[in-house]
Amino acid sequence: MKDLQVLIVGAGIGGLQTALGLAADGHTVTNLESVKEFPEVGAGIRVPPNSTRLSLLWGVDLQSVLKETSLGNRFVNWHGTHLLDCPFDDAHERYGAPYYFIHRADLINALVTAVKAHPLITLRMNTAVISYDLDLPCPAVSISSGEHLTADLIICADGIKSSARSALTSGKTSLRI
Ligand SMILES: Cc1cc2nc3c(=O)[nH]c(=O)nc-3n(C[C@H](O)[C@H](O)[C@H](O)COP(=O)(O)OP(=O)(O)OC[C@H]3O[C@@H](n4cnc5c(N)ncnc54)[C@H](O)[C@@H]3O)c2cc1C
Ligand SMILES: *[C@@H]1O[C@H](CO)[C@@H](O)[C@H](O)[C@H]1NC(C)=O
């Protein structure tokens, strides 16, 4: 496949990881994020081996992030009675990568650092997508500054309250959000 110009809307964990994955394959990525800076929201997040394996491959520095290694899952019922243990002590050798607990803000920080260091990725903060034009062969977005950006591929990683989803499922080819 030829190297694509890709726009990714949303720089959450999904958008940032997608940017790193595509750039690792030689595609040029512009990641558009509406917030000015990332808020320190969230708590501990589980980062299982399939995720750490790729992050490490893409040069995300998980070594210097404050973290715990997950030892397993313990299931208890609402009385606190112990039901089942699922140990993860062999996770690393079984799945080829460690199983971590990381604070969400620290994970985002590590991803953003890797994204900013990558020559094929441009991260544009304070850049809200306000409309989509999904017409082929030249899909495009408009952003809050009034600019019109086109790409070979547009990936909407705009979260659980995605406004792009309704455009895609409605069959409309353009959407103002
Ligand atoms: C309490 C809780 C615990 C969780 N625990 C875990 C866990 O242990 N392990 C795990 O893997 N997952 C966990 N999850 C789920 C995980 O947090 C989410 O699946 C993940 O953060 C979703 O990432 P995302 O990039 O899809 O969306 P988001 O993080 O929501 O990112 C979307 C981004 O898009 C931006 N955006 C939206 N619209 C536009 C627009 N028009 N223009 C530009 N930018 C836009 C937003 O500002 C946002 O930054 C948990 C979730 C919750 C709520
Ligand atoms: C993890 O990755 C392996 C190998 O790529 C795959 O077979 C497996 O289904 C993945 N596990 C999960 C939970 O996604």
From TrEMBL:
<protein>
    <recommendedName>
        <fullName>FAD-binding domain-containing protein</fullName>
    </recommendedName>
</protein>
<keyword id="KW-0560">Oxidoreductase</keyword>
<dbReference type="InterPro" id="IPR050493">
    <property type="entry name" value="FAD-dep_Monooxygenase_BioMet"/>
</dbReference>
<dbReference type="GO" id="GO:0004497">
    <property type="term" value="F:monooxygenase activity"/>
</dbReference>
<dbReference type="Pfam" id="PF01494">
    <property type="entry name" value="FAD_binding_3"/>
</dbReference>
<feature type="domain" description="FAD-binding">
    <location>
        <begin position="4"/>
        <end position="168"/>
    </location>
</feature>
<dbReference type="InterPro" id="IPR002938">
    <property type="entry name" value="FAD-bd"/>
</dbReference>
<dbReference type="GO" id="GO:0071949">
    <property type="term" value="F:FAD binding"/>
</dbReference>
<keyword id="KW-0274">FAD</keyword>
<keyword id="KW-0285">Flavoprotein</keyword>
<comment type="similarity">
    <text>Belongs to the paxM FAD-dependent monooxygenase family.</text>
</comment>
<keyword id="KW-0503">Monooxygenase</keyword>
<dbReference type="InterPro" id="IPR036188">
    <property type="entry name" value="FAD/NAD-bd_sf"/>
</dbReference>
